[in-house]
Amino acid sequence: MKFGPIPVAQATGAILAHSVDLGGKRLRKGVTLEAGHVTALTAAGHETVIVARLDPGDVHENDAAATLASALVPDPAAAGLRLTAPFTGRVNLMAEGPGVAVMDVAALTALNAVDPMITLATVPPFHQMGPGGMVATVKIISYGVARADLERACTLGAGAIRLAQPQLRTATLIITDIAGGLASTEEQAPDKGRAAIESRLAALDMVLDRVVTVPHRSEELSDAIAGAQSDLVLILTGSATSDMDDVGPAALRRAGGQVERFGMPVDPGNLLFLGARDGRPVIGLPGCARSPALNGADWVLSRIACGLTVTAADIAAMGIGGLLKEIPSRPMPRAGRGDRKPA
Predict the structure, then answer these.
(1) What pLDDT sits at residue 186?
(2) Looking at domain 58-164, what is its CATH homologous superfamily?
(3) Whole-number pLDDT of residue 338
(4) Is CB count within 10 Å lower at the N or C end of the chain?
(5) Burial level of 249, CB count in 10 A (0-12/13-18/19+)?
(6) pLDDT (tens digit per residue) in 51-79
(7) 3-class SS at 156?
(8) Cα–Cα distance, 226 to 251 (Å, whole number)
(9) How open is the CA angle 324-135-307, to the nearest 5 degrees?
(10) Which superfamily is assigned to 2-53 in CATH?
(11) Cα–Cα distance measured from residue 117 to residue 1, given in angstroms and rounded to the nearest whole number
């Protein structure tokens, strides 16, 4: 591509690089100049104009953006995404429903190294999306790029972005009561965290179909876990889980389940545990899940709800970038005295 000023008389077919005043009207940048434009420029007293002229092997910005977006998402319906029409060298990749953004980070990093004029910006990997949210944007910075570079970028990024959509539909919430009382119906389970948890599930197209309160003892909690029939089991203990042998993890093992991980390097959210029983995922929620503010449990819940496997290694990797905002409900802020902080 050639870029720079040329005589107006020679500008037909070139792309206007900067908007130009035509004496009350404005000829906007990006337009491909036609004979009428040249006449108007001359009449307005312009002798030269800054333009971009594509070489035979170049691809126009809009065509390039559309081509790259289609390579990234060859089947938008299957990927849960919608591609916008190209405009000024940009195509946006929009979520068609709730879900989690899944991407090949290495491939997309390589794509962005092909040519600085070919760019792709995305949300973070595994970011939870709502309907209509922008997952990524393709932007061709220049008015055209070399076809060879575009083809290489398309090859590197082929099929590298998708939206993992919710696979689980129902959840049981088991709340433990330190006072030892027992409630078997939803009306008897007034824990203040229920509304925040229901909201989280609703954002993932899930429903809380059962809420049970049991005494904060592993025997009763174990029975409740064993009796849960929902797609997902959530446990919110009345006292923070502080050890692998504490009430929550111990109850899961007693019920015949397995604990994949206790503790996560995300703050708030340290005191989460993750496991399963008979193929049904079980998440022991940290106390901060009672607040609607973002915490580590959200990162695990969204992936699990969307059918993605979460391993102990996955949780360990969440620590980089895992220092989240302070939440108002934290009884002892991080900056306070002492080192025993509810999580």
Answers:
(1) 42
(2) Pyrimidine nucleoside phosphorylase-like, C-terminal domain (3.90.1170.30)
(3) 46
(4) N
(5) buried
(6) 999 999 999 999 999 999 999 999 999 99
(7) helix
(8) 10
(9) 75
(10) Molybdopterin biosynthesis moea protein, domain 2 (3.90.105.10)
(11) 12
The sign of the CA dihedral 265, 268, 272, 274 is negative
Q: Report the predicted TM-score, pTM, of the whole model to 2 decimal places.
A: 0.89
Query: Are residues 139 and 58 in contact, defined by beta-carbon separation less than 8 angstroms?
Result: no
Q: Can 58-164 and 170-317 be said to share one CATH topology? A: no
Cβ contact 172:223 at 8 Å:
no
Nearest in space to 340 (alpha carbons), one of 271, 265, 247: 271
Short-list 312, 176, 304, 311, CA closest to 251:
176
**Ramachandran angles phi, psi of 312, nearest 5°:** -60, -40
**For residue 249, what are the CA distances in angstroms to 243, 268, 278?**
8, 19, 15
Please check whether the domain covering 170-317 is classified as CATH 3.30.70.141.
no
Return the number of other C-beta atoms located less than 10 Å from residue 307's C-beta.
Answer: 14
Q: How crowded is the C-beta side of 159, counted as CA atoms within 13 Å?
A: 2
pLDDT at 187: 37
145 forms bridges with which residues in the sheet?
59
Place 334 in a pLDDT band, splitting at 50, 70 and 90. Answer: low
> 214 in helix, strand or coil?
strand
Mean pLDDT confidence for 174-196: 67
217's tokens: 């003892």
- Bridge partners, 267 (sequence order): 323
3-state secondary structure 277-325: ECCEEEEEECHHHHCCCCCHHHHHHHHHHCCCCCCHHHHHHCCCCCECC
Residue reference for tokens 């696979």: 167
- Is the Cβ–Cβ distance between 191 and 152 less than 8 Å? no
**67 Cα distance to chain centroid:** 23
Position 123, amino acid: V
Determine whether 127 is exposed, middle or buried from the number of CB atoms within 10 Å of its CB (0-12, 13-18, 19+): middle
What residues have CB less than 8 Å from 246, skipping those under 6 apart?
none
Tell whether the model's pLDDT for residue 112 goes beyond 60. Answer: yes
